[in-house]
Amino acid sequence: QPELGRPRRNCYTLPGFDFSYGLYLPRTDGGVPEAIGRWNTVKPRTSVRKMPRDFITMNLGALKAGYTTAREFNLYYKLKDIRQKDDEYSRFKRSPPNVPADFTYGIPTRSSTPIFDLLQHKYKELWMEQQRAHTAAKRAEKKKVIILQQVRETRTTFLRKHPPPAKEESFWHLPHLEKV
């Protein structure tokens, strides 16, 4: 019910000043004196891992028992729940890697850079030579493109390269144009 003479509020009232939000967790440890006095170590949990089902063995058993339908197979799975063994589940226990006795795992170390080459700035010079060769190749390629763009084929250049065949002279004339 709204207060008398006032509209209904569309929000909740806040709790009092002594209210604390969240969960209240009472402290069970004795603080620093208890930590100095004795050690309360947490016992490690031994969780029993549920191994996955061994369907190959269960299917073989169901076939030997004479089951053929999917319903019969499911009933057999519920009756005989065979799980994989721990050593079968691990791929390393199934087939350990074949490595030589003196094999070292990891990335081989890089050979050290000769200090004499560093003092002579040899690597800088090699890089500069590569950059010069690269720019020279780019410049030569650009020149080729410019030359190809400048030379255009016109009718005159085409006729110079491929002259038309010479006309054979005909000795026939119209009769009325011949000299009498």
UniProtKB/TrEMBL annotation:
What is an example of a Pfam family matching this protein?
Answer: CFAP77
Name-wise, this protein is CFA77 protein
Q: Which gene encodes it?
A: Cfap77
